[in-house]
Amino acid sequence: MFRVLVIVSALMLATAPAGLAQRPAATAKPALERFTVKSEGHPMAVWARRPPAAKGAVLLVHGRTWSSRPDFDLQVPGLQRSVLVSLAAQGFAAYAVDLRGYGETPRDATGWLTPRQSVIDILNVLAWIASQHPNRPKPTLVGWSRGGIMAGMAAQTAPERVSNVVIFGFASDPDLEFVEGEAPDAPAKSRNSAVAAESDFISPEITPRIVVASFVEQALKADPILVDVKDDTDFNGFVPSKLTVPALVMFGSEDPGLAIEEAGKMFAAIASHDKQMVVLPGADHAAQLEDTHDAWIAAIVNFINRPPVRR
Q1: How far apart, in whole angstroms, are the C-alpha atoms of residue 230 and residue 263?
Q2: What is the DSSP string of 67-109?
Q3: Residue 28, SS3?
Q4: Architecture in CATH of 10-174+188-304
Q5: pTM
Q6: Are strands 140-144 and 56-61 parallel, antiparallel or unpaired?
Q7: pLDDT at residue 311, rounded to an integer
Q8: Distance CA 68, CA 96 (A)
Q9: Is the pLDDT of residue 10 over 50?
Q10: What are the backbone dihedrals phi and psi of residue 223, each rounded to the nearest 5 degrees, phi first?
Q11: Confidence of residue 184 (pLDDT cuts 50, 70, 90)
């Protein structure tokens, strides 16, 4: 039997083991570090905030439009919204990768990015992270939106490289197939826009304007040009019934791009018996940056620190 956890109120996080869902005492935040990790010879920018004695590691994978720093290390005046900082405060070495063409990782010679290439790069970065923490559990892999399905694909492809996988802000009906849209002959290299940067913030009740303004500024600075993607049929390689590692499926209750019926169907199909589903009330697609930030962090930390499953 597997256990399903659906959080319908952030207050229910308090039922977790003492201290896990609570904000830690204020301490100096670790400095932002930048590493270059080679994947098949290509330089991948990896960002990190690491506590002095990490008890484990987490790798974060961004979504379609924006790179790691605006998504996972957002700096907001007067508010703590950096995922890297919050995970480091909980004792984890927190890493985030810029996929090809995003942030400080250059495009490769093709100018395109495919899901298959991204999964290869994620697996190579996971191997590098494991080498940085040889006496700790394998990293937990967290993917957001398009990064969520790629995280699932990576964990399915090489389960020995991860301890857990978190699929956040993504769900699809496992009985349906991805189809390839029309792609131009050459990468368009279109400019990103402030409208696109604001589009993930749907619920004003949980999204202070200062968060949106900070995200727009930092996202456009990090990613002025939209990455060109193709070969979405690669996503048909994600088969939940072949995903055997412990899995957390998480999404906001107000995420307009996600159908709870599809999420439930995907969750039920995941092969691992060690799995949970968490619904963050009131949150939309950018739950890690909104007023649901603490609940988002707590759900992941609680999953990582859960008691062992009896087999």
Answers
A1: 24
A2: -HHHHHS-EETTEE--HHHHHHHTTEEEEEE--TTSTTSPP-T
A3: coil
A4: 3-Layer(aba) Sandwich (3.40)
A5: 0.91
A6: parallel
A7: 60
A8: 6
A9: no
A10: -135, 70
A11: confident
